[in-house]
C-alpha cells in the first residue's frame, strides 16, 4: 500500500488554512482534514515491511513540537505546481524528521534524496495553467505570502495510507506514535 509518515495539524490551523484556501479558489485544493507535515514518503510498501517499520517507530523517543507557519509560497513562480504553507525549519522538526528517516532506512525502505523543507500543501495545479489562473495565484501570494500562524503542539507522529482517487488523495491513519512533552517545554510534571 502507498504510505507516508507525517505530523497531523490541529483544528485551529486547519480552519486558518481553509480560510486562506477560500481566498484562492484555484487548483485542486487539499481537504482541510488532509493537512499534514510530511516527514517521509514511503511509496508502495508490503504489509510485512510496514510491520517491521512499526516496531522501529515504537522505539523512537521524540519530543512534541510546536511548528510555526512563516509564509506561503509556490514551487516555481514561473510554472507553479504546488502552493504550500512554509514552516520555520527548527532543530526540533529536523530532529524528528531525521529520526523518522533513520527508522525508515533501518527497514530497507529507500527515501527520495531531497532536502527536508517542512510545509503543509494547500493546493496542486495542473501542468498548463491558463494566464488567468497564474494571475490569480500571483495576486493571492501578493496578499498572503507573509501569512504567519503558530500551530498547537503536535504530540503524535502518524503513519498514513494514501489512496489516490480522481478527486484527490484520501488519507487514512494506520498507526500513531506518541511524541512526548518535556519538562523544559513548560509542561508541569
UniProtKB/TrEMBL annotation:
Under SUPFAM superfamilies, the record lists: LigT-like
Q: Tell me yes or no: is Metal-binding among this UniProt entry's keywords.
A: no
**GO MF:** 2',3'-cyclic-nucleotide 3'-phosphodiesterase activity; ligase activity; RNA 2',3'-cyclic 3'-phosphodiesterase activity
Q: Which residues form the active site?
A: 36 (proton donor), 119 (proton acceptor)
Give the residue ranges of motif HXTX 2.
119-122
- Please explain the role this protein plays, according to its UniProt record: Hydrolyzes RNA 2',3'-cyclic phosphodiester to an RNA 2'-phosphomonoester.
Per the record, the similarity remark reads:
Belongs to the 2H phosphoesterase superfamily. ThpR family.
Report what the protein is called: RNA 2',3'-cyclic phosphodiesterase
Origin organism is Epibacterium ulvae
Amino acid at each position: 500500500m502507498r504510505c507516508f509518515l507525517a505530523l497531523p495539524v490541529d483544528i485551529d490551523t486547519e480552519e486558518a488554512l481553509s480560510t486562506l484556501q477560500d481566498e484562492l479558489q484555484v487548483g485542486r485544493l487539499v481537504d482541510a482534514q488532509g493537512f499534514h507535515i510530511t516527514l517521509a514518503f514511503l511509496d508502495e510498501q508490503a504489509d510485512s515491511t510496514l510491520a517491521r517499520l512499526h516496531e522501529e517507530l515504537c522505539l523512537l523517543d521524540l519530543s512534541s513540537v510546536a511548528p510555526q507557519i512563516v509564509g506561503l509560497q509556490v514551487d516555481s513562480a514561473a510554472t507553479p505546481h504546488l502552493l504550500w504553507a512554509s514552516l520555520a525549519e527548527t532543530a526540533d522538526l529536523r530532529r524528528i524528521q531525521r529520526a523518522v528517516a533513520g527508522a525508515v532506512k533501518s527497514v530497507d525502505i529507500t527515501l527520495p534524496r531531497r532536502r527536508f523543507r517542512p510545509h503543509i500543501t494547500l493546493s496542486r495545479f495542473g501542468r498548463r495553467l491558463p494566464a488567468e489562473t497564474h494571475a490569480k495565484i500571483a495576486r493571492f501570494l501578493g496578499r498572503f505570502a507573509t501569512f504567519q500562524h503558530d500551530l498547537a503542539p503536535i504530540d503524535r507522529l502518524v503513519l498514513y495510507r494514501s489512496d489516490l482517487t480522481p478527486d484527490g488523495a484520501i488519507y487514512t491513519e494506520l498507526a500513531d506514535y506518541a511524541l512526548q512533552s518535556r519538562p523544559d517545554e513548560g509542561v508541569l510534571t
